[in-house]
Amino acid sequence: MVNVITNYGHLLVEALGQTLVLALCGLFFACIIGLIFGIMSVVKNRFCRAISFVFVYAIRGVPMIVLAFFVFLGVPQFAKDILGIPLKFSGLQAGTICLSLNCGAYMSEIIRGGIQSVDKGQMEAARSLGLPYWRSMQRVVLPQAIKTMIPSIINQFIITLKDTSILSVIGFPELVNSAKNVVANTFALFQTWGIVALIYLFVITLLSLLAKYIEGRLARGRE
Amino acid sequence: MLVAVNKNNVKIHVDALKKNFGKLEVLKSISTDIYEGEVVVIVGPSGSGKSTFLRCLNGLEEITGGKVVVGGYSITDKKVDINKVRENIGMVFQHFNLFNNLNVIKNLMLAPVDLKKASKEEAREQALAMLARVGLEDKASAYPAQLSGGQKQRVAIARALCMKPEIMLFDEPTSALDPEMVGEVLAVMKGLAAEGMTMAIVTHEIGFAREVADRVLFIDGGYIVEEGTPEEVFGNPKEQRTKDFLDKVL
């Protein structure tokens, strides 16, 4: 029997690095997308709210594996055949797009909920002093909204980190994909998948601890 | 009142103001002028549109029809910057609406500093002076959650005053307070009235209204049903609806 850790450990650690790179890229853009669509869903303008609603509705209604195939394979074909533009995504690019769209949709819902949880008297008071809408948002509403959003956001980060595994289907060399290669070489199914599970668990434990720490600090901060 | 009302200077001109919420007509046609130094108290049954009327005066509610002119600026005019108009009208809310993420002094400093009305130092000095005025200089670094209702409302008044408004709107400022805290808030308001601040106040405190109001508006069913001095409206109401209302609250 082969020892997966000694022979292939470095490969899996490298793959973990790729997983984290993909997750960070996805989360970074997801935060931006989430903030944009989240705010669009609370403004007065109906058109903005409709766009945001459709975005969230569409993304939430499509499994990420379908989204991954669509972005990685479907879109380049469409670009080449119909538009005549040679378009090819790297695994990281396609993966980042999928993750940030998917996570962004959920983030936008979290951000919408957070903003709406702030009493509307807060906005009114700021406006009555002469502060413009965006300044009021920035100085009064968002700081209070973020406080209630943090636990949900970190939870979403954890989900997104795990969702990177779905992107093994488009060949991105993250943890699951690399584990498949290790299994193909060694047939050590139990060992390999067990190790992979533990790696995920380890990283997610760290994230959860961070979440607890931040929550604790926020709770102590103001009251 | 101690300070004479200046009838030559209309601070707020309201003409045929209409406000609908969907199909519900809350304000049907309200016309009145509020003069410099005048204290106008608005009374009426709940749901009569008193608060809505007040909120139309600084554009917190978008008006459906008619005209509101504040300090010479029509607030529905697209060329008028509503934020500039609001700098000149302070508003105090029933539920205080202090910024929960900021401590007391920062609540007071936010708008003057952000809108470049004052440097940070000036704003701090002014804020401390305002807090002293409402008797809360020792609460500068407290957060809203640590204050009593009466204290919160006094901070809210001080916050509005930091913008040096010429007009103050009060939307049921004592309705959410425990009875023993009503007095401290009314005392601050009396002080303002005595200094000649132009004020529009929605309240259920009839005793207070008798004491400070130059004029009382009784609003019901979307119209001003009756108006006059407190003696006229409270002492000798002409309209049956006013009588019915006063019978219930007095």
What would you say this structure looks like, in words?
The complex is a heterodimer of chains A (223) and B (250). Chain A is mainly α. Chain A has a single domain, classed as MetI-like (MetI-like fold). In chain A, 83% of the residues lie in helices and 0% in strands. The longest helix of chain A is centred in the N-terminal third of the chain and has 37 residues. Chain A is flat and about 70 Å long. In chain B, the strands form two sheets. Chain B has a six-stranded mixed sheet with strand order 6-7-8-3-9-10, sandwiched between helices. In chain B, strands 2-1-4-5 form a four-stranded antiparallel sheet, with helices on one face. By secondary structure, chain B is of the alpha/beta class. The model of chain B has no long low-confidence stretch (mean pLDDT 94). At the A-B interface, α5 and α6 of A face α2, β6, α3 and α5 of B.
Helical residues, percent of chain A? over 70%
CA(first)-CA(last) distance of chain B: 23 Å
- How big is the Rg of chain B? 18 Å
Shape of chain A: flat
Largest interface: A-B, 20 and 27 residues
> Could you name the CATH class of chain A?
Mainly Alpha
**Poorly predicted sequence stretches spanning 5 or more consecutive residues of chain A:** none
- The count of strands of chain B amounts to 10
The CATH architecture classification of chain A is Orthogonal Bundle
Averaging pLDDT over every residue of chain A, what do you get? 92
Describe the strand arrangement of the main beta sheet of chain B, using strand numbers: 6-7-8-3-9-10
Beta-strand content bin of chain B: 25-35%
Kindly identify the CATH topology of chain A: MetI-like fold
